[in-house]
Design brief:
The chain has 401 residues and is an alpha/beta fold. It folds into three domains: 146 residues, Rossmann fold (3-Layer(aba) Sandwich), CATH 3.40.50.620; 177 residues, Argininosuccinate synthetase, chain A, domain 2 (Alpha-Beta Complex), CATH 3.90.1260; 36 residues, no CATH class. 43% of the residues lie in helices and 20% in strands. It has 14 helices and 14 strands. The strands form three sheets. It has a five-stranded parallel beta sheet with strand order 3-2-1-4-5, with helices on both faces. β1, α1 and β2 form a beta-alpha-beta unit. It is elongated and about 85 Å long. The structure holds arginine (ARG).
Length: 401
């Protein structure tokens, strides 16, 4: 009998996928559920998968691996898709694919299935990652094949006694993990409509946040955030602490129109309180400790990295090569950044590092200035030489502007 390993979230689509796959392919379905820090109770997920016909269900806590091997490199690379989206969903997919492949190999299953639709980026990320890891495994996406409308799917579920979760009434489609949450569908599809307050669950409305700011000091050790306000903690806990405090001050809401890989533009709402603040802090510390030309080089690679994560190209030599450069730069990134969180805004108000290239004696306008003012004249003479030459030419022979 054929065996299929299904990425199972416990929601309606993947619950319906279990009997659908079993019937269509005459297969045994093995469910796999990962804890990526989505904050949902996974206690009864195994029972639910079995109740609708899975032969086994593997529930795996991958939060630490996700934080250290996927989120951290993206943070260090400064990866924000189209300048804003911290890529929570996109970073989760290669790890999901990796675990699906491992379980498929262990279970001698020739097929992997997922609940992605045919219109999004997630199908691309999972399919391409599976191919990179084991190209002999076939990938199927029931929700992209079955052509059922939402009501038809609910009817299908009811016929087979599949419990329809109460949240199915929610007009929104969401995806969460420890790096943030995405919210789509319903009224959000009109890019002119302001998101109703009830779409937000990780961030308070700035109209209700505290009237006094919170100050947060984030310490980094070679590019890794290691402590908040003097309290050291492992990365998973640190991310969740930053999320709590930033969210409480309404920081981390993103409302954007983004370019999907499948060619359409979509309006996306994100809540990423930890990602927004940690990116801001990390970038600030880098700017203190990295030479100008290296800072510019690194910044030019950030959008390249963000695009490749977004477009499902995690398991590629390009990503590895950028990781190597970024990792090398992180050797200098030790120090602290102080941020002020207030009414939906986070602002850097201080930074320090033993590796700082900032030198007060060179920057100061007060006593003790060590900058050689007299050298400026000669420097400017040479610097301006090509400007003078070009201007002279265009004045005499080309134009008068
Ligand atoms: N637009 C985002 C991305 O492509 C969010 C996708 C949300 N995925 C989901 N299964 N709800 O990364």
């Amino acid at each position: 009998m054929e065996r299929i390993v299904l990425a199972y979230s416990g929601g309606l689509d993947t619950s319906v996928a279990i009997p659908w796959l079993a019937e269509k392919y005459q297969a045994e379905v093995v469910a796999v559920t990962l804890d990526l820090g989505q904050g949902k109770e996974l206690d009864d997920v195994r029972e639910r998968a079995m109740a609708v016909g899975a032969v086994r269900c593997h529930v795996l806590d991958v939060r630490k691996e996700f934080a250290e091997k996927y989120v951290l490199p993206a943070l260090q690379a400064g990866a924000l898709y189209e300048g804003q989206y911290p890529l929570a969903t996109a970073l989760g997919r290669p790890l999901i694919a990796k675990r699906l492949v491992e379980v498929a190999e262990m279970e001698s299953a020739g097929t992997i299935a997922h609940g992605c639709t045919g219109k999004g980026n997630d199908q691309v990320r999972i399919d391409v990652s599976v191919r990179a890891l084991n190209s002999r495994i076939k990938v199927v996406g029931p929700a992209r094949e079955w052509g059922m409308s939402r009501p038809a799917e609910i009817a299908y579920a009811q016929e087979r006694n599949i419990p329809v979760p109460a949240t199915v009434d929610s007009p929104y489609s969401t995806d969460s993990n420890l790096w943030g949450k995405s919210i789509e569908c319903g009224v959000l599809e009109d890019p002119w409509t302001e998101p109703p307050e009830d779409v937000y669950t990780l961030t308070k409305s700035p109209t209700t946040t505290p009237g006094t700011p919170a100050y947060v000091v984030i310490e980094f050790d070679r590019g890794v955030p290691t402590a908040i306000n003097g309290v050291a903690m492992p990365l998973v806990e640190l991310v969740s602490s930053v999320e709590t405090i930033s969210g409480a001050h309404g920081v981390g809401r993103i409302d954007m129109v983004e370019n999907r890989l499948v060619g359409i533009k979509s309006r996306e709402i994100y809540e990423a309180p930890a990602a927004v603040v940690l990116h801001q802090a990390h970038r600030e510390l880098e700017s203190l400790v990295i030479p100008r030309d290296l800072e510019r080089l690194k910044a030019s690679l950030s959008p390249v990295y963000a695009d490749l994560v977004y477009n499902g190209l995690w398991f590629t030599p390009t990503r590895q090569a950028i990781d190597a450069l970024v990792a090398d730069v992180q050797r200098y990134v030790t120090g602290s950044v102080r941020l002020k969180l207030f009414k939906g805004k986070s602002q850097v108000v201080g930074r320090e590092s033993a590796n700082a290239l900032y030198k007060e004696a060179l920057a100061t306008y007060d006593e003790g200035d060590q900058f050689d003012h007299s050298a400026a004249e000669g420097f400017i003479k040479i610097w301006g030489l090509p400007v003078e030459m070009a201007a002279e030419k265009s004045l005499s022979s080309i134009s008068n502007d």
